[in-house]
Amino acid sequence: MPAKLQPSEQQPGKLLIVSSSDTKFFGLLKDMILSLERLARQPASRIPAYALGIVDLGLSDEDRAWLAERDAMIVAPRPHMGAGSLDRPLELAFLVRPFLPEYFPGYDIYCWIDSDVWLQNEDAVLGLVDGAAEAGMAIAHENERAYRFQRWLFLWTAKHFVLGYGPFRGAWLLTRPHLNAGMFAIRAGAPHWAAWARRYKAAIDKTGKITPHDQFALNQAIYQDRLPTRFLDASANWICDRGVPMWNDEAGAFCRPYAPYETISALHLAGPGKRTAYRIARTGGGSFTTMIRYGAAPVPAPAAEPAGLSVAAH
């Protein structure tokens, strides 16, 4: 696994991968980290050396010990922008993200990956890191033909865009490709940090709500402030409950549910995806049912019995 960079070793160009979790969701965080480590260990891996930062939302001593084995830097969140309380650490997880350079100073690229994301290949991380280095920020959009229309989600999004940003600006934002903040990368010193915090604070002051304005304010900052941003497609942050993937039998991986069945880079178990078992169609025919967790795969078919033998009934 990549060694953690000590503060004295931090040089421009260094990458920090950041996430957050409490002990309830620590299994998901482990999946994310293990999937990243697997990719980074591959002989031909192009993932740069990285340090690991974790925002502690209520981890156990055992959780912290596992992270310490990976030299992870663990920090406690705090309120920001006049909002949040130490008694509600899960809310603080949303507030900290525009301030990551303050929690983990000294890095050049900050790449956030939600704890309920896991990685199948390195394309998502490389796209985010390269995009942030080049443009200042990189993030995936949710314009994906395989995503089903969810009326409740559309109405919920419209409601909060209007409440947080007014009817005209909210309606305009609703027409933009929605950007999911479950994965993103921002370069240190980029204007995105301050613009995000400013737009986020305005939405909190207007609505009194911390969520969902963490993500919605980021959309507003990128689009309204015309911040230079590289947009990645949905494979870099695939929302599984919106578009159930298929299984590519040849690649041995979850893939887009249409030809040419390209492997999905990052699978995001947002919302119901964390607790739902899905029927997964296979490119070779048939299907299997599974939760889309790291390591999930169809169970191999039993070997055929040799001719002339019978199986005893019990």
Automatic annotation (TrEMBL):
InterPro entries recorded: Nucleotide-diphossugar_trans (IPR029044)
Name of the featured protein: Glycosyl transferase
UniProt organism field: Aliidongia dinghuensis
